[in-house]
Design goal:
The complex is a heterodimer.
Chain A (H helix, E strand, L loop, with lengths): L2 E4 L3 E5 L4 E3 L1 E4 L5 E7 L5 E7 L5 E3 L5 E5 L4 E6 L8 E9 L6 E4 L3 E6 L1
Parallel strand pairs in A: 2-12
Antiparallel strand pairs in A: 1-4, 3-9, 5-6, 5-10, 7-8, 8-9, 10-11, 10-12
Chain B lengths: L4 E3 L2 E4 L5 E6 L6 E7 L6 E7 L2 E4 L8 E4 L6 E5 L8 E8 L3 H4 L2 E2 L3 E5 L1
Parallel strand pairs in B: 2-11
Antiparallel strand pairs in B: 1-3, 3-8, 4-5, 4-9, 5-6, 7-8, 9-10, 9-11
The chains are: A mainly beta, B mainly beta.
Chain lengths: 115, 115
Amino acid sequence: AQSVTQLDSHVSVSEGTPVLLRCNYSSSYSPSLFWYVQHPNKGLQLLLKYTSAATLVKGINGFEAEFKKSETSFHLTKPSAHMSDAAEYFCVVLGLNNAGNMLTFGGGTRLMVKP
Amino acid sequence: GAGVSQSPRYKVAKRGQDVALRCDPISGHVSLFWYQQALGQGPEFLTYFQNEAQLDKSGLPSDRFFAERPEGSVSTLKIQRTQQEDSAVYLCASSPRDRVNYGYTFGSGTRLTVV
């Protein structure tokens, strides 16, 4: 079984300051991990994915995430927040179930960016 | 098509009414998923198809929920005798066979409100 825990339900930063959204996972298998972003009334958009090729993964819009197996973490970072980054962010693990594959979502982190 | 298309975008149903939600996946994508996202929550798995075969329906909350994908492309999620607790956004996602490297593409969802 796999699970995902997003440690903060809300994060507030000022524009131009760094962003850190925390995610811990548990999985019986070597996981594939994703971060998705959801803007209000919009669909889920893939930010980046980890598939065991490299532990530091770069995504769109300046976001990146580092896979740390020893800490079972996959935290999302960005050096400088922009107002347009305000949205809901989901950490997602792809694992195996009886049917072959399933995405399991964390509870989400709402990022607020202050001017 | 260019993306995953879901219709209708919004649906208001009276309690007890039957509804049908449609998902048009990306052409050629073999895998199709349905997720339910309650307000303020992360999406939760409902069911999974590989081509026309429904390989996992363990997430369907009751026997009032039924999904089909008869020709391995368009899928319909049907909810019979809707209840207020069915109010949520219903998300559809599709992926090619190499789901790990290509990821999953989500539609914008159908927001169902049961009154």
